[in-house]
Amino acid sequence: MGFFDKLKSGLNKTKESFNDKINNVFSNFRKVDEDFLDELEEILILSDIGIETSTKIISSLRDRMKKEKIEDAEEVKMALREEMKKILDIQDKELHLNTKPSVILVIGVNGVGKTTSIGKIANRLAKDGKKVVVAAADTFRAAAVEQLEIWANRAGAKIVKREEGVDPASVVYDAMKQTKETNADVLIVDTAGRLHNKKYLMDELNKIQKVINKEMPEADKEVLLVIDGATGQNAIAQVQAFKKEADITGIILTKLDGTAKGGAVIGIVEENQIPIKFIGIGEQIDDMEIFNAEDFVKAII
Question: Using CA atoms in the order 14, 4, 10, 73, what is the torsion angle rounded to 10 degrees?
Answer without folding.
Answer: 20
